[in-house]
Write a structure and sequence with these properties.
Strand content: 15-25%
Largest sheet: 7 strands, mixed
Number of strands: 19
Structural class: alpha/beta
Helix content: 25-40%
Shape: globular
Strand order of the largest sheet: 7-6-15-16-17-14-18
Distance between the termini: 74 Å
């Protein structure tokens, strides 16, 4: 017992030291430090005083960092910010957005292009307040966020359902009856199930309160550590956060369904909850989630943590991207769409317009919002070839999250049994539960699906539940996300023209494979009462898969979830925001710090903008003094 306590305490000290080092090492550069990159061509003293920043890519990270930078300077410290986006204007926001489809004789349906649930609401609110000096809110820019109560409906493969996520302090909402039914069902799964659920969420809440400021926002918050240590060490370190997630779940729950309810969020960070004894430390340095990622459950499901809650943007995620675009334009950002950046240097970018015109755009600083593993092998790769060559390739030395096949179904019937957010889980027994995550293990990545008879988990979004404008009357918009393997990189494709390379990669997800996934998904959904006739009421389908994600957004390996978050790609070990080999180039996006998901990318934009602002103001002060001496 003493030996175990000593080991746990030493691990605790290690975590505390790591948190402090992580925070200290990621603080913005000292104000007295100058960047020494060569200045772009000058056309007179006024240009010497005005700094130019080019942002490559108009995803949420690019829009947010551009807005923050443009609003951080005054007339006495002039700055020009130009954002370049390869897609047309209606695709600003990247994967964060919506698409409207008109179906003859039915009407217009709205589907999300990427994210469909909104978390950490305050991160969005802070962005608009920061960029406007507190004078305008997210709502002023058309972004209204409605809480989903309950947050989720979980559907097991035997047809059993349970609802999760009931905020105790939601004004004007009486969810007590459905919450009581949910807790009674937990107790039916195992003795004291609801009490065990409360204890689990208490630990997850402490992980969230400590993890968000110290490891995600990278600011040292000492008051959050006592509760973190208490929950980590109590009951003989039952919930120790560095264990594989399944070790903690096994210690706290008996029933496979309870364990599934407590861990499905691991998929969001590209990890599985189960220990993998083929890997060191149970796989936590690769694809097995450490228990600390229980903080994701707290973000979504904790009843009274002020950071918790699942929200839906009114009007879909198009409202998010449009609000960010307005914010950036109001701050003075020059947004140019249908413009492809083909090379990035310390002094600017090479640009190819949609009509074939070539241009070199000088810049003091370049911020790359393109997916980092893609960018390092294409636009930021330092070579002497054709600067205007357009390619698709990526660095496959990283560990990636899963791929996804997305079915966007417009239906001629409403399916009121579905909530806004639904997760279909396999949990008949431990063996099937583990098999349902196989796509994240190497042995699952080369699967031909075998008719998709093996267990699998997936997510279903039905926006009409909270926003009826998503579909015509008596109709529905349904999005289904099925995790799959990613694209497998082929070295011979690197030398191909981009269009040809993308076509070759799309062949990895042919129609036969998609048909198998579609049929298996519909079969699983049919176990839920009221969904037996879903297939017969689908009047339109839009399909996304790793090949189309690659084509639309240049995401590496075709995964919209970016790099996974094992310990080998987390915090200090995740790719940094400062581009290696460059003095004036930075990264922002899901594959760099702090991680994937819209709120984390927005937090990353805040960190990048802070460091770039300090650097540019230092340069401005130096040039201004130089001009006075002249």
């Amino acid at each position: 017992m003493e030996r175990r306590t000593s080991s746990v305490l030493s691990d605790t000290i290690f975590c505390l030291v790591a948190a402090g080092i992580s925070t200290l090492l990621t603080l913005p550069p000292n104000a007295c430090c100058l960047q020494t990159g060569a200045d772009p061509p000058r056309s007179g003293s006024s240009f010497r005083s005005q700094r130019h920043v080019v942002v490559v890519g108009g995803g949420v990270g690019g829009l947010a960092v551009a807005a923050r930078l443009a609003s951080s300077f005054t007339a006495e410290e002039p700055i020009r910010v130009t954002l370049l986006e390869k897609n047309p204007p209606d695709r600003l926001g990247g994967r964060c957005g919506s698409q409207s489809i008109h179906v003859e004789s039915h009407g217009t349906f709205r589907h999300e292009r990427g994210p469909s649930l909104l978390l950490l609401k305050s991160v969005y609110q802070d962005l608009f307040a920061d960029c406007t000096g507190g004078e305008s809110s997210a709502a002023d820019y058309g972004l209204t966020m409605d809480q989903c109560i309950p947050a989720y409906q979980c559907v097991f493969d035997d047809g059993d359902t349970i609802e999760l996520g009931f905020p105790r302090s939601a004004a004007g909402v009486n969810a007590s009856a459905t919450e009581a039914a949910s807790r009674a069902k937990m107790d039916s799964y195992e003795a004291g199930g609801s009490k065990k659920w409360d204890e689990y969420l208490a630990a997850c809440s402490a992980f969230l309160d400590c993890g968000l400021p110290n490891f995600i926002e990278e600011r040292l918050d000492l008051p959050s550590f006592p509760a973190f240590l208490y929950e980590s060490l109590r009951n003989n370190a039952r919930a120790w956060p560095l264990k594989p997630h399944s070790d903690v779940l096994d210690a706290m729950f008996d029933n496979p369904k309870m364990k599934a309810l407590a861990s499905f969020q691991d998929l969001y960070v590209g990890l599985e909850p189960y220990r993998n004894d083929r890997e060191w430390f149970g796989g936590i340095f690769k694809k097995s989630a450490p228990a600390v990622f229980g903080l994701l459950a707290a973000i979504e499901l904790h009843p009274n943590n002020d950071k918790a809650g699942v929200f839906a943007p009114r009007g879909g995620f198009a409202a998010v991207s449009k609000a960010l675009e307005r914010l950036a334009r109001d701050a003075g950002v020059d947004i140019r769409c249908d413009t492809t950046v083909t090379r990035v240097t310390d002094t600017g970018v090479h640009v190819l317009s949609s009509n074939g015109d070539k241009e070199v755009l000088p810049a003091d600083t370049v911020i790359v919002n393109a997916d980092l593993p893609y960018a390092t092998e294409t636009i930021t790769k330092q070579d002497t070839g054709d600067a205007y060559n357009v390619a698709y390739d990526w660095d496959d030395s990283y560990d990636f999250a899963s791929g996804v096949v997305a079915f966007h179904w417009s239906t001629s019937k409403r399916y009121d049994n579905l909530n806004t957010h639904n997760v279909f889980l396999s949990a008949r027994n431990r063996s099937e539960a583990e098999q349902s995550w196989a796509v994240l293990r190497e042995e699952g990545r080369s699967s031909n699906y075998d008719g998709m008879e093996a267990p699998f988990n997936f997510y279903v979004h039905r926006p009409v539940k909270t926003d009826p404008s998503a579909a015509p009357a008596n109709c529905d918009s349904i999005m289904v996300l099925v995790p799959t393997e990613t694209l497998q990189r082929k070295a011979e494709h690197a030398s191909l023209a981009r269009e040809e390379a993308v076509l070759r990669y799309q062949e990895q997800f042919d129609n036969d494979r998609i048909d198998i996934i579609r049929k298996a998904t519909l079969k699983r959904m049919a176990v839920m009462p009221g969904l037996e006739d879903l297939e017969s009421h689908i009047v339109d389908e839009i399909l996304d898969h790793p090949g189309t994600w690659a084509d639309d957004y240049n995401v590496a390996a075709g995964t919209p979830f970016a790099l996974s978050h094992g310990f080998n790609q987390l915090s200090l070990t995740r790719p940094t925001i400062k581009a290696k080999g460059f003095k004036n180039v930075w990264y922002i996006g899901a594959s760099t710090k702090p991680g994937n998901g819209v709120p984390l990318v927005l937090l990353g934009a805040k960190q990048v903008a802070s460091q770039v602002t300090k650097s540019l103001k230092n340069q401005h002060d130096f040039v201004a003094e130089d001009e006075r001496q002249e």
